[in-house]
Amino acid sequence: MERKQLSVCLVVKNEEKYLLRCLESIAGIADEIVVVDTGSTDRTIEIARQYSDKVYSIKWRDNFGMARNYALGKATCEWILFLDGDEELTPESIGRILANLLNNDYEGFLVKVLNYYESGKQVKIAPDVVFRIFRNKKEYRYSGAVYEQICDNILAVNPCAKIAVTEDICIIHYGYFPDEAVAKSTIERNTKLLLKAVKRNPHSLPDRFHLGIEFFRDKQLDKALAEFLFVADRADPQAFYVPKLFRYITKCHYLLGNAEDALWFIDDVWSKLYPDHGDLFFLKGQISLETGRYLDAYESFQHCLEAPPQPAYYANLYCHHKDQVFIRLGEISEYYCDKEKALEYYIRALQDNPRAAAALTGIIKILNPRENSDYTMEALNTVFDLSDPGIQLDLANLFFAERAYNLAIDCVSYAAGKVSLPPEAHLIKGLSLIRSRQSEDAIQELSLIPANCSAYGSAQENLFLYFWVKGEEEKSGLHLKNLKNSGQNPRLTEALDILQEGLYATPDDLTNSSGINQEMIEILGILIEMKNRAGFEQAWNCFEGLFVPQSTQVLVDLFYKYNIYDLALIQYLRLLGQNQATPETLYRLGEIYQNLGSPADAEHYLQKAIEKGYNNPRVHWGLARLYQQMAIKTLEEGLYNYPAGGEIAELLKNLKDNLIEV
Fold it and tell me: Side-chain half-sphere of 157: how many Cα atoms within 13 Å?
């Protein structure tokens, strides 16, 4: 009888979430399916038996290699495909596997795996290669209690064995979505097993490498780096795990605060062995950006975009997310005051990933919707389908953050005509209405937010402040009581209690001292936006003692943030008189004088900022804009005195046609 071709083997435990999908993906290719269960307490065994009569339960002995070898002992076909229960084979791979199995030249194949994982609120994909297809021979067995491997063992018993990398066979892996408790338990188990393995064989590079990974996952970065460097000193530079090893070493250096070591490693080691590795360029760009090397960062991210197609064993985590590369190029362009280029990069990021929130945020900031509402909507309409209520709600949040309250109100109102609004949308509209002095509509909108919603606390805070500045103590007290009863944000509740009681608070008066100052700064900002100076001054009298000795800095930061330049100027000059002025302070003084129409003072402080080492392009941009304004004023005076001065008129026109953007 002709021997069957393919046994698919699995070692599983509590895989009911993904197992059905896994088994469905191989049903059309497997001549037999061998499932070894190591102690499931869910429906795993029941699901497995729907697809195979070769389902075995064994006692778990802290050894994955042993469990896999048990499965191999039950397999009868000529070839083995090993899968995990949280993986599936792509439909396109079936024909390609069959074609490869007919090739008698090879003993096994490294195949492509796409690891799906969560990053923030996004699901991302990281490619890699794994050794999963090989001939079924008794002498081919796994070793290793965890991160078990067989490829090296095949080569040890058969040095002439040919192993191929075939990226057209692809496995999808969903297992990087565990909850925090499961992840912590897995790290502890793997670390324990790997420490035992390393104690038995200190020179096992795969075990040392994987131990480093577990230390890294557990944020024991010093230990992780020590393991990675041990492996790097001894590994074959062409080993398929080395690109991943180099990425881990770079990240360890950087996360330990050693940016210079990270950049040295990239330039002197990584780039010399893998000069086209996309993650090399991304990490060099990111580290350069975060350490103020903007030109190096720009160059690295450009190289990242230009990198050639990457082999799966490079296991890139970053470079194939082009939207993130474009966002960083946009941020660098903004740093150099090139808003047009920044917009171009942010738009390209959104084209690559329509949900790239940072790119949309960058676009909104550049468009300046608070000052240019009509132009902003016209520009956005060329990029987005503004008939989509979801996009309108996203824009409402961004407009609110930019204090473009009328646009935020319009967006939420449009969405309300299309869909049922979430509480957060009512909050954005209500807060925008309060700040636009549409108080009755604001009260109605904020009253729609239920007490069991996270937006409720902010709604009650703003309603409290609205009635508190009006002196309506009964109503403000009611909203303070609502906030207390909700149990949300005790720091905010205590800050509002201080206002309601009219206390001059000191640190000794506080129950919730940690983080309460930030709540108070937020309250002061709300009062500024309500344009109630008396209310602001009353609140400041209550809170000032909690900010000593930084009270002047807190005030000046608030006034500067909300463009209250006359009051900001007073506080900045006070800092100057107290010898507390930083180069940033000098720059801001120059900017304020420029906005207040005092070019000579503006020039003085901008030049001072440069002398004190403020080498941000913004200050040079500000000076150029200032000199342009001064030139326009001088030419206008000249043209007034000499109306026939054609050259003056032409030069004036050229300057006005090419104004430097604010």
Answer: 11
What 3-state DSSP class applies to 372?
coil
Q: Which residue has the tokens 């096994």?
A: 108
Q: Is the peptide bond before 389 cis (omega within 30 degrees of 0)?
A: no
For the chain, the first-to-last Cα distance in angstroms comes to 82
Q: Is 257 left (phi over 0), alpha (psi -120 to 50) or beta?
A: left
SS3 of residue 571 by DSSP: helix
Closest to 111 measured CA to CA, from 132, 83, 94, 127:
132
What does the DSSP 8-state code read for residue 149?
A: B
**DSSP for 34-86, written as a single string:** EEEES---SSHHHHHHTT-SEEEE----S-HHHHHHHHHHH--SSEEEEEETT
The sheet with strand 79-84 has its strands ordered as: 54-57, 32-37, 6-12, 79-84, 122-135, 108-119, 163-176, 87-89
Longest dimension (CA), the chain: 109
The β-bridge partners of 88 are 172
Residue with tokens 């970065």: 221
Full DSSP string of 606-660? HHHHHHTT---HHHHHHHHHHHHHHHHHHHHHHHHH-TT-HHHHHHHHHHHHTPP
Pairing of strands 6-12, 79-84: parallel
CA atoms within 13 A on the CB side of 308: 4
Contact, 492 vs 512, CB < 8 A? no
Instruction: Please give the model's pTM, rounded to 2 decimal places.
Output: 0.83
Q: Is 6 helix (H, G, I), strand (E, B) or coil?
A: strand
453 burial type by CB count under 10 A (0-12 exposed, 13-18 middle, 19+ buried): middle
Q: What is the block-wise mean pLDDT of the chain (662 residues), using blocks of 10 residues?
A: 80 94 95 96 96 96 94 96 95 89 86 81 80 96 90 92 91 74 78 94 94 94 98 92 96 96 97 96 97 97 95 89 96 94 96 90 95 94 89 95 96 96 96 94 95 94 95 95 93 93 88 84 94 93 90 92 94 87 91 92 93 89 87 84 80 82 66
Length reported for the chain:
662
Q: Where are the alpha helices (DSSP H) in 372-489?
A: 373-381, 389-401, 405-416, 423-435, 439-446, 456-469, 473-486
- The one-character DSSP state at 235 is S
Q: How far, in Å, CA of 546 to CA of 549, rounded? A: 9
Helical packing angle, 389-401 and 357-367, nearest 10°: 60
Q: How many CA atoms lie within 13 A of 329 on its CB side?
A: 24
Cα–Cα nearest to 524, from 486, 488, 498, 506: 498
Torsion of the alpha carbons at 131, 15, 219 and 147, rounded to the nearest 10: -30
The structure tokens listed for 546 are 């909690």
Q: Is 355 exposed, middle or buried (0-12, 13-18, 19+ CB in 10 A)?
A: exposed
Question: Collapsing DSSP states into helix, strand and coil, what is residue 146?
Answer: coil
